[in-house]
TrEMBL record:
Major subcellular site: membrane
GO biological process: amino acid transport
Keywords annotated in UniProt: Amino-acid transport, Membrane, Transmembrane, Transmembrane helix, Transport
The protein's name in its UniProt record: Amino acid transporter transmembrane domain-containing protein
Residues covered by the Amino acid transporter transmembrane domain: 8-344
Organism lineage string: Eukaryota, Viridiplantae, Streptophyta, Embryophyta, Tracheophyta
InterPro entries: AA_transpt_TM
Keyword check for Cell membrane: no
Length: 361
């Protein structure tokens, strides 16, 4: 869903540049792009594990820096274009208007924003999988701690800088998505470059988050039917040399060959088809992003790591550290619940005016 909105943005920006802003036929549906993205993920999903998509992680990091710097530069230029005057206020649009409906909507927008922020920091579910791919020395946990600290610091700086600069540039009319929300159309080549970077980033991000889910589902199915030959079998198929990227490293079969497991082929295809269908039925960028972030933030990024930390250090119930960690966990739980409420409200609101299989910004 997210990727298709950026595909559509590229086509819309080029159309406006060619035919003029507001020209007819410049608002394409993203359903076709969702299907294309899903088909591409079907191919990548047949790679065995995170070890085989290390190159995707490198591409994702490079492209994320690319679109972050471009977005920050565009917002800064927009802000400077009106003399550096800050549009909007700290109180927000509803507080200025003073109407009850505006106040209510502003409150829900705050909750939705919490969900979007929470989504940005929900990475604990893949942290262990990534750590498992690291080599030692140095120790994997030390490398992961350093990577997490640097990653969180850099992303937080970018989020704050882009959020503040975007609000200063657009004020209360700031779109939910700077690159796809009718904010910028010129210079069109730079906006296109940023959108392409986002697409490439999402291609890698999908696999990084999906591979642990695939592994878990396949493990559960294999444990449920351990004697089923079809489920646990692996076949080796000869492939053209151009597909050496997908080649297995097994010495039991002559290269170039591709390991084909029926379980992996069927299960991963079903998962990707399901996620693609859901994205086409509920095409709301910020609302769904906020809901996913809200649902995953507390259990995966707070409760699970905190519980492991207390068990490893043998922190006993009633100690000061125990109370502090539990208080932090409870506050984060409240944030997740509040963000879920705001996201569900926004989804319900958008469903009244939107149609399935039609991307909404």
């Amino acid at each position: 869903m997210y990727c298709s909105s950026f595909y559509s943005a590229i086509k819309r920006v080029n159309c406006f540049h060619r035919d003029g802003y507001g020209a007819a036929g410049c608002n394409p549906s993203g359903s076709t792009y969702m299907v294309v993205f899903g088909l591409f993920q079907l191919l990548l999903s047949q790679l065995p594990s995170l070890h085989n998509i290390a190159w995707l992680s490198v591409v994702a990091v490079a492209t994320s820096l690319g679109y972050s710097f471009i977005s920050l530069g565009l917002c800064s230029a927009k802000w400077a274009s009106h003399g550096g005057h800050v549009r909007g206020t700290l109180a927000g649009a509803a507080a200025v208007a003073g109407r009850a409906d505006d106040d209510k909507q502003a409150a829900f927008n705050v909750l939705l924003a919490l969900g979007n922020i929470a989504f940005s920091y929900t990475f604990a579910d893949v942290l262990i999988e990534i750590q498992d791919t690291l080599r030692s020395p140095p120790a994997e946990n030390r490398t992961m701690k350093r990577a997490s600290a640097y990653g969180l610091a850099i992303t937080t700086v970018f989020y704050l800088a882009l959020g503040c600069t975007g609000y200063a540039a657009f004020g209360d009319h700031a779109p939910g998505n700077i690159l796809t929300g009718f904010a910028f159309y010129e210079p069109f080549w730079l906006v296109d470059a940023a959108n392409v970077c986002v697409v490439l980033h999402l291609v890698g991000a999908y696999q990084v988050f999906a591979q642990p889910i695939f592994a878990r589902l396949e493990s559960c199915v294999a444990c449920r039917w351990p004697d089923a030959k079809l489920i646990n079998a692996t076949y080796y198929v000869r492939v053209p040399p151009c597909l050496l990227l997908l080649r297995t490293s097994s010495s039991s079969s002559p290269p170039p060959t591709l390991a084909v497991a029926p379980l992996k082929l069927v299960l991963r295809t079903i998962v990707i088809m399901f996620t693609t269908l859901v994205a086409m039925l509920v095409p709301f960028f910020n609302a769904v992003l906020g809901l996913i972030g809200a649902l995953g933030f507390w259990p995966l990024s707070v409760y699970f790591p905190v519980s492991m930390h207390m068990a490893r250090l043998n922190i006993r119930r009633g100690e000061i550290r125990w109370w502090m960690l539990q208080a932090m966990s409870f506050v984060c739980l409240l944030i997740s619940v509040a963000a879920s409420i705001g996201s569900v409200h926004d989804i319900v609101h958008n469903l009244k005016a939107a149609a399935p299989f039609n991307t909404a910004n």
